[in-house]
């Protein structure tokens, strides 16, 4: 690419960054690189800046935007999960997180991020439509339970800390174990019927 294709902002930000590599100007420089189509350079400069300013939200969002353009959705989720915990009203971060989770097929996480977007911007009809669609999809796939659904027969009381930090992998293994036990029981019942008849 010839220099004339670059935004003058790139040169301004680059000059400032070269004068002071510890400044936070790396974030707008990364954004300018990304907009100019220099996505790899955007990722490199954002990561370099985040080594100096690891808690700088603007830098993480700039990095996430560039990673999103490279279809590195897992990396986007890693970057933005930190951001939305600290600054839940960062709408750019919430939207990027939601879209990345959706691209990864993580519907419930995408739904959560879209709901946060809707909470902070309740008049956005597009986000409201996406939330409604994802809720329907999550409900139909058994990932979401509505209040009108029958309550489970046996309620298990757990400490709040355990409920909040529940490991999805362990829960999945427990459910698989329950299904296997039920299947074994059904096999035994069938054998009993055939032998008893």
CATH topology category name of the largest domain? Serine Threonine Protein Phosphatase 5, Tetratricopeptide repeat
Order of helices and strands: HHHHHHHHHH
Which radius of gyration do the C-alpha atoms yield?
Answer: 24 Å
CATH architecture of the largest domain: Alpha Horseshoe
Number of helices: 10
Tell me the span between the first and last alpha carbons.
83 Å
Structural class estimated from helices and strands: mainly alpha
Q: Please identify which CATH superfamily of the largest domain we are dealing with.
A: Tetratricopeptide repeat domain
Structurally, the number of domains stands at 2
* Mean of all residue-level pLDDT scores: 82
Tell me the β content.
Answer: under 5%
What does this structure look like?
- This protein is an all-alpha fold and about 200 residues long.
- It has two domains: about 5-145, Tetratricopeptide repeat domain (Serine Threonine Protein Phosphatase 5, Tetratricopeptide repeat, Alpha Horseshoe), CATH 1.25.40; about 160-195.
- The protein is built from ten helices and no strands.
- The chain has helices spanning about 10-20, 25-35, 40-50, 55-70, 75-85, 90-105, 105-120, 125-140, 160-165, 170-195.
- Helix 2 (about 25-35) runs antiparallel to helix 3 (about 40-50).
- The longest helix has 29 residues, at about 170-195.
- It is elongated and about 85 Å long.
- Mean pLDDT is about 80; it is low at about 150-155.
């Amino acid at each position: 690419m010839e220099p004339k294709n670059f935004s003058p902002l790139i040169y301004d930000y680059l000059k400032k960054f070269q004068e002071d590599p510890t400044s936070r100007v790396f974030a707008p420089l990364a954004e300018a690189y990304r907009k100019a189509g220099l996505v790899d350079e955007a990722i490199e400069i954002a990561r370099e800046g985040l080594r100096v300013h690891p808690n700088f939200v603007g830098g993480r969002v700039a990095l996430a935007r560039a990673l999103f353009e490279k279809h590195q959705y897992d990396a986007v989720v890693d970057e933005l999960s930190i951001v939305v915990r600290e600054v839940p009203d960062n709408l750019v971060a919430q939207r990027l997180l939601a879209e990345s989770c959706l691209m990864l097929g993580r519907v419930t996480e995408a739904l959560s991020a879209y709901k946060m977007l809707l909470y902070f911007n309740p008049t956005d009809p597009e986000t409201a439509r996406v939330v409604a669609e994802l809720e329907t999809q999550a409900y139909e796939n058994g990932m979401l339970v509505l209040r009108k659904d029958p309550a489970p027969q046996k309620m298990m009381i757990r400490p709040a800390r355990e409920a909040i930090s529940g490991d999805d992998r362990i829960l999945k293994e427990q459910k698989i174990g329950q299904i296997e036990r039920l299947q074994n029981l059904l096999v035994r019942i069938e054998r009993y019927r055939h032998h008893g008849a």
